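Aim 2 progress. For Mitochondrial import inner membrane translocase subunit TIM23, the working sequence is reproduced below.
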Amino acid sequence: MSWLFGGKKPSTDSQTASTDSEQNNEKLKKTLGFDPSSVTNVSNVISVPGGLSPSQLHPLAGLERGVEYMDLEEEQLSTLEGSQGLIPSRGWTDDLCYGTGAVYLLGLGLGGSYGFFEGLKNIPPNSPGKLQLNTVLNHITRRGPFLGNNAGVLALTYNLINSTIDSLRGKHDVTGSVVAGALTGAVFRSSRGLKPMAYSSALMAAAAAGWCGIKSVVL
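Predicted structure tokens for this construct:
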């Protein structure tokens, strides 16, 4: 009856724990090449045949192979036919970010430059320096964001439509880009009537064709 009061169970539990500990040590020994229970300092590990070497313990060990961040499966470049352009792309998300950001900054710069020269022309005669500076800055902040925002919206819409067309057709080419440009222009001026839509569509299609021509020459 002693087992009812835990007389023999502790010995069984201790034997099981000891067996599990030995099995874990054996697994670690096979994996690491040394017995971890015998390690008291680093020199013991290094001195064991087949154990770790000092070069493996160095914080910068293995960097001579280079940073292999491009080897990750999700970081592979797009395999869509004709999708690779001036900048390596992993898919439509990269095209969306690069295209929208670059066009927005370009529009912001061009608009700001136009506003700068416009402000210089409109400076009131015989005005103090602060008023002259304020006039120039007002024109820059009005023209720059206006052109940048409109260019960014056009680029965002174009990339979304172009990526959708490429996905449906299974390839990226001039035809898809021109069609995407025409649709982008039409959507951008859709609230102004049919005539502004047609003008905007033609201009965007021409811009897309010109961009494709520049890429073909550069690449």
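The helical segments are 9-32, 42-47, 54-57, 92-121, 129-169, 174-188, 194-218. This observation will guide construct design in the next reporting period.
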